[in-house]
Amino acid sequence: MARYGWVRYAGLAGRSRFGCVPDRVNFDVVGAPGRVRVSPLLASAEDGQNAHFGYHVVIRSPVGALPWWAATMRSPMTCDDQSPVDQGQGAFTAATGRALENDRGKPRYMAYQRELIRPHCGRTVLEVGAGTGEFADGFTGTDRYVVTDVDPGAVSHMKERFQHRPEVEAMQFDLDGQQVLDDPVESLIAINVLEHVEEDAAALRSLSESLRPGGSVILFVPGYQRLYGEFDRKVGHFRRYTPSTVSAAAREAELRVEVARPVNFVGAFAWWAAVRKGGAGAPNPRLVSVYDRFLVPVTRRIEKHVRVPFGQSVLCVARKAR
């Protein structure tokens, strides 16, 4: 009897396939074993021949870009149909706690990020995990800017957002080592991406294949494990970094580290109060707006003149060998 099913899953990473058998789910991650927890949601039958089944599947794998993201396979597939599921659907929201449309709440902070990152970029750029294109929206003056995300919904959003900027390309791109740009770029940007990858050095090594010799890798990552809180757990952060730990990952990927320093000193205390001590599961939009309006300008002024010892984030700039 042919059996059909649908799968609701969370935590898919890498390239995976499901065999929809009533009492089990066959799980295969290319390159590494996955860990699977399955619980049936429903079972019903139509016309006495085709059985329909539902599962909640939680998967955690060391392969891929964004562990613990939630998605839904929208159409049934047979047990014999081993075609890949629609990877990445819902990844942006699960990894950020925000809807695709909600990216306008911190213009000063975004300007500050661009100010930190721009001096290290060449004329052609690949941004991985770009989400809705919030960072790229104010980043101009390049000859080519490739914005990517694993979430197809985010990619569609960016294609519409940048339709009037001919130098911007939007495409789906995973960090599983299977994709490389046909035309390598001078600079790679990854903002709040690397912490979602368990094998971070391996991901950096794969990403560097899309860089020209001598190209720069600019990493902006959450800082300091003592700030790790409920929000980090909720969105799938494996870790927060120090300048030393992000440098170690870059060096393991055979990149030469040029800059590794904490940034957003004031924001670290706000994060500690709200997330670490306060246990907030998501940033409060009203507090984010207040922070952006009043504290970000103070942070920018301080860090122009003082090398801070600690911060909410860490900036790392590394370079591929020539």
> Hey, roughly how much beta strand do the residues contain?
25-35%
Q: Compute the average pLDDT.
A: 75
Helical content class: 25-40%
Radius of gyration: 21 Å
Order of helices and strands: EEEEEEEHHEHEHEEHEHHEHHE
Any low-confidence stretches, pLDDT <50, length ≥5? 1-86
Shape: globular
* Biggest beta sheet attributes: 7 strands, mixed
Through-space gap between termini: 59 Å
What class, by secondary structure content?
Answer: alpha/beta
Count of beta strands: 14
Task: Please report the number of helical segments.
Answer: 9
Give the spatial strand order of the biggest sheet.
10-9-8-11-12-14-13
Write a structural description:
By secondary structure, this protein is an alpha/beta fold. Helices cover 27% and strands 31% of the residues. The chain is built from 9 helices and 14 strands. The strands form 3 sheets. The protein has a 7-stranded mixed β-sheet, sandwiched between helices. Strands 1, 4, 5, 6 and 7 form a 5-stranded mixed β-sheet that branches. It is globular.
